[in-house]
Amino acid sequence: MKYLKLLCLLLLVQSSTFGQQQRARDIGIPFNGTTGKFNAITDVKGVEVGYSTIISGEGKNTIGKGPVRTGVTAILPRGKNNNPVFANWYSLNGNGEMTGTTWLTESGFLETPIMLTNTNSVGVVRDAVLKWFVDKHWYKEDFWYTYPVVAETYDGFLNDIYGFQVKESNAYEALNSAKSGYVKEGNVGGGTGMMCLGFKGGSGTSSRIVKIKDSTYTIGVFVQTNFGRKSSLTIAGVPVGKELMDTLNNELKMPPQSYRQEGDGSIIVVVATDAPLLPHQLKRIAQRVPLGIGNVGGYGMNGSGDIFIAFSTANTNAFQRNDFAKVELLPNDLINPLFEATVQATEEAIINAMVAAETMEGVNGNKSYALPHKSVIDLLKKYNRIK
Prior knowledge:
Strand order of the largest sheet: 4-3-12-11-10-9
Order of helices and strands: HEEEHEEHEHEEEEHEHHEHEEH
CATH topology: L-amino peptidase D-ALA esterase/amidase
Radius of gyration: 21 Å
Shape: globular
Largest sheet: 6 strands, mixed
Number of helices: 9
Strand content: 15-25%
Number of domains: 1
CATH superfamily: L-amino peptidase D-ALA esterase/amidase
Structural class: alpha+beta
CATH architecture: 4-Layer Sandwich
């Protein structure tokens, strides 16, 4: 009985230790900067993330039947509370979609959750968000409008994207399941069928803690990665992609006259902070995201939609319809640590997505391989980035 109890205890410890996915730091990849508790966008107090992951079928693609490898991600700036936040957005290359951005720029406020899905499902997800608002009574019957923010990347190389597999119920599932704390990564939510820099990509997140004078602020980043060519993949300054060019080549059965070029794809990045930033400053934050993408080998290729949004959870009483609002503002001369944190967290979130993602076979036997962890660590040692 004594040994049986010991065995049960050992199994319990193993379950709690290995229940969560491996992340970049877990396998030894070094990064600059100090992370928050969860090293996730949810380290910004109030932010919640939810998923709906749709995986079914295998073999030859039959439109409308699958195989299906897709989903929806919901990011709620203040959780289930209807309180708009200051926000702004930026596009490095516009071969993609993020709805609601014209009013975002005009008003300076993000009034809805941020939803991520595949290219052909933007419409159904957008409509679902409006219905979700009505269900929650987050509106005024006499005069109410809002413009949901829904962004996409293309997963048609693994998913039955023209089968319109994402339904209203999936958007609801992502919204209703959103929570703070630990965030799952890799083949989940809108990132389920995505690829990145020659390997399997998907959903990823990271955070940074910065001190500015006597205050401490958090930058949290969430990415949906589906961009880049293998030869460009760079990790911790090491040309990993070039070293692994002949390793685990993706098997994509493309039509003979496909217009897809190597490196085509997209990345959506969401940046959250609790620093008191106004919309024009949040645009400056979003404009720093490409520096983190560039660190891992992204160059904003012609066929890539590289679109980013940043919001601040500070100034909780800023959104008013009838009264004046007093807001707090971080001086521009103190903003540099937040720029640096954005770059660092973006870089790590992308690599986290790749480390967590598992090999996936999708439509017509197309296969996207997981980043080989041991090979990456061996290369970092070879280039003296780690011992």
